[in-house]
From TrEMBL:
It comes from the Eukaryota. The lineage of its organism: Eukaryota, Metazoa, Chordata, Craniata, Vertebrata. Gene3D superfamilies: Transferase(Phosphotransferase) domain 1. GO terms for molecular function: ATP binding; protein serine/threonine kinase activity. Its EC number is 2.7.11.1. It is an enzyme of class 2 (transferase). This is non-specific serine/threonine protein kinase. The gene is LOC109703056. Transmembrane segments: none annotated. It comes from Castor canadensis (American beaver). Residues 1-77 form the Protein kinase domain.
Amino acid sequence: MCSQFWSLACVLYEMCCMKQAFTGSNFLSIVLKIVEGDTPSLPVRYSRELNTIMKSMLNKNPSLRPSAIEILKIPYIDKQLQHLMCRYSEMTLEDKNLNYQKEAAHIVNAMQKKIHLQTLQALSEVQKMTPRERMRLRKLQEADEKAQKLKKIVEQKYEENNKRMQELRSQNFQQLSMDVLHNMGGRENIRILAQLR
């Protein structure tokens, strides 16, 4: 449960700052920042109480992180929950729908900005690479594209072969049925001829 609150604090930080709480060039550097680095703080435009709550949830010692009950008992959180409950209980259904649409549009805009920033950041990282690193990256991307194309071709061929096998089984079954019927008819003819003699 403690790791879930740590993750929730990371999400809270990312929502407030539009960037990740811990970043690095690779997995190991991120882990080192989490374990040995300073706990990030929210910008000053957010309340000191919210920042304190987030920092307590990001505590490096899991046993010192607050529980769900403890978080809900914090006066700041309780006040915010009461405010939300009053706000939404007074709204009409139309108001709620309009508000949801505005909030959704705001979230979409924020995500588009974030994706754009991530693209620019990735482009910046590529530009910092040496020509050899860029060539290696290009080759990896080409290999990924080829692998995707090959996977698609294999899937198509597999489907075609399955379909062909089903058609052949169907044809063989029909031929076998005809042979059986023909053979049964031949036996019947022999029996009738034997009776006539």
